[in-house]
Amino acid sequence: MTHKEDSSSICKKSWIYDVFLSFRGEDTRYGFTGNLYNALHQRGIYTFIDHEKLKRGEEISPTLLNSIKKSRVSIVVFSKNYADSGWCLDELVHIMHCKSQGQWIHPVFYNIDPSDIRHQKGDVAEALAVHEKKPGMDKERMNRWRRAMSELANLSGSHFKFGYEYEFIEKIIKDVSRNLDRDLLFIADHPVGLNSRIEKVISLMEEEAEYDVKMVGLYGLGGIGKTTLARALYNQISDQFECKTFLSNVRETSTKEGLIHLQKKLLTDTLGDKDITLRDVKEGMERIQHGLYQKKVLIVLDDVDQLEQLELLVGGSDGFGKGSTIVVTTRDMHLLIAHDINIRYEINALDHEDALELFCWSAFKKDKPNEGYEEISERAVQYGSNLPLALKIIGSDLIGKGMANWKSTLQKYERVPNKDIQNILRKN
Questions:
Q1: pTM
Q2: Is the dihedral of CA 212, 329, 345, 350 positive or negative?
Q3: pLDDT tens, 16-32?
Q4: Any idea where the TIR domain is (predicted)?
Q5: Per annotation, catalytic residue among 26, 59, 91, 374
Q6: 132 part of the active site
Q7: Is the separation of the CB atoms in 83 and 128 below 8 Å?
C-alpha cells in the first residue's frame, strides 16, 4: 500500500501499519475478525492484530498504544461482548484520541445495534453496570468509555446483521482501500484539546446549511493553533470533495514567491496540471474561476494577512459548485468580514488543564509533571499564556534539565524574554 503525503506543506507522518484491528477476541478472533484480517493481508494491506502475544496487565502496554498511534486506519469490530472488556474500552478511548491526528476510524457493528452503543443500552448497559461495581473503579475512566462509545457510534461504518460475511468483508476492504489512498496532513504528536474545537467548527458549518458554498474563517493570535485546527478539519472532511488543496503559509509565500506561485499550486492540486504557466495574477484568477467552475472543491488558505490574497486565490463564492467549502485562517478577523466570510470561529487559548498537559508532553514526554516539578510547571505554563506553540517551545527548552536549570531558565525568560516566544505572544 502506497502512503502519500504532501511534502511541500506538511511534515511527514511515520506510519508503520495501514490498519489496526480492535476487537473482542472471545467473540470474533476465530471467526469474523480472523477472516477480515486474512482478507486484508491478501490485499497487501499491512494490518496489526494482537495475537495475544502482548502481555495483558491492568493498563494497555506502550507497545500496543504505539501500534494504534502508528496506524493509518483503525477498524473497531464492536461485537456483543466488546464492552465486557475494560481493556477493549481503554483501547477504544485511545483510538478515538488518534482520530484527531488524522487517523481514519471505521467502526464495524457486528450483530449489535449502533444505537445500543450510542446510548449505552442493552448488553452495553449491562457490561458498564458490572464495571461500575468493581472495587476502585474510576468515575472519569467510565466517562471516557462512554464518550468514546458515543463518538464511535456516530461515525459512518458498517453494520452486519445477516447475509454473507465474505461480501460484508469485501465492502469493508473497499472502504479501507479508498481511505488509505487519501492524502492526510500531519496534525500534531499530541493534539490536546483539538477534538472539541473540530466539533465546534463542524457544528457551525452544519448550522449554515443554506449556503451553497461555505466560507469558513478561523481566527486568533499567532501560535494559538489555527493551522493545527485547519489541518485536522481538512483531514476530517476532505474525502467529501471532488477537488481539494491546502495552501500553507500564504502570508510568507506570497511575500517571498508571489501570489502567482500560490495560484499555480492551487491549480496543480485541484486540476492535476503540473505544467501551468501564468503571465500575471489576473490570468491566474481567471484560470481558477474557469477550471473550478461548478466543481465541488475544498480550499484551505492558511495564514492570510491581506485581502488581495483572498481575492486572487478564491474570489467570491459564486464560481464554485454546490457543497464547496473555503477555509481561511488569519490573525485578522476584519479580513474575514471584508471578504463576506460569515462562518467565523475565534480560537481562544487552551484552558489551564489542557495547557498543562500539552506543556508536559514537551517537557516530560508524558501528560503530567514529574514528581517535584508540579509548581514550577505551573509557572512555565503561565509564562506561555496557554498558547500551544509557546508551550511547546518552553517545554522543549526545559526537557532533560534539572530543577536548578529550570529555575534559572525561567528567570532568564522573565528578565530577557525568549525571542521566539515573544514573537508568538505579541498580538498582531
A1: 0.64
A2: positive
A3: 888 999 999 888 888 99
A4: 15-180
A5: 91
A6: no
A7: yes
